[in-house]
Design goal:
The chain is mostly helical and about 200 residues long. The chain has seven helices and four strands, in the order ααβααβαββαα.
Length: about 200
C-alpha cells in the first residue's frame, strides 16, 4: 500500500499511539499515580494537547523561586533582620521580580506585609517548581493554597462567598464553619496578574 492509499483511520491511530506513550510517561513520572482512563468525549487532539503540556510541565527543570530570585541578584534577608519600612520595600521587590518570572501571588489580604514576607521567606519561595520560562504559563502562589485544614479555614473565614460557605456547610455539616471576617489588608487587587 502506498502512502497515498493510507486507511482513513491512520491519523486516529497515530493520535492513540502518542496519547498512550504520554500516559505511560506521566505514570512513570508520577510513580504510577497519574489518573488513567479516558477524558470522556474530549476530541483526541485536545487530549493530546493536554497530555503534551502535562509532560512538558513534569519534565521541566525544577528549582525554588528563592534560588531564582537570588540568581537575579535580589537581596532576600530573613524577616528578623528588617525593620518594617525596609521589609515592605523588600516585599515589593520580591513581588515585582516574581511577576517577571511568571509567578503571581494571591489570597494575601489576611496577612500583614511582615507575615507575608515571613511566609514567602520560610515556605512560599522554597518549594521546588518547574521553570516556566522553558514552557510558558504562570505559577500561582498562595499562603492558603496547600489545601490543608488551616488554609481551608482561612479561605472560609476571609475569601469564600456566602454561597461557597453555604455549599461547604451542606457538604460538611459536622465541620465547624468559621465566622466570616473582613479582610484586614487590601493588597491583592494591587498585585501583578498574568496578562
Amino acid at each position: 500500500m502506498s502512502p497515498i492509499d493510507l486507511p482513513d483511520d491512520e491519523p486516529k491511530i497515530d493520535h492513540e499511539i502518542r496519547i498512550a506513550r504520554m500516559r505511560r510517561e506521566l505514570e512513570d513520572l508520577a510513580g504510577g499515580s497519574f489518573i488513567s482512563g479516558n477524558f470522556g468525549d474530549v476530541p483526541d487532539d485536545l487530549e493530546e494537547a493536554f497530555l503534551t503540556r502535562a509532560c512538558e510541565f513534569e519534565t521541566a527543570p525544577q528549582d525554588a523561586y528563592f534560588n531564582r530570585l537570588i540568581q537575579r541578584r535580589l537581596d532576600i534577608p530573613p524577616p528578623s533582620e528588617l525593620d518594617d519600612a525596609s521589609l515592605s520595600s523588600h516585599l515589593q521587590q520580591v513581588i515585582s521580580v516574581l511577576a517577571t518570572l511568571s509567578c503571581f501571588l494571591h489570597d494575601t489580604d489576611h496577612l500583614s506585609d511582615r507575615e507575608l514576607y515571613a511566609w514567602l521567606w520560610r515556605e512560599g519561595l522554597r518549594e521546588q517548581t518547574p521553570d516556566l520560562s522553558t514552557i510558558g504559563g504562570a505559577w500561582h502562589l498562595s499562603p492558603i493554597g496547600s489545601g490543608d485544614q488551616e488554609g481551608m479555614a482561612i479561605y472560609l473565614r476571609y475569601y469564600a462567598s456566602e454561597q461557597e460557605r453555604r455549599r461547604w456547610h451542606q457538604e460538611f455539616p459536622c465541620d465547624r464553619l468559621p465566622p466570616r471576617c473582613a479582610l484586614p489588608y487590601n493588597r491583592d487587587r494591587y498585585l501583578p496578574h498574568p496578562d
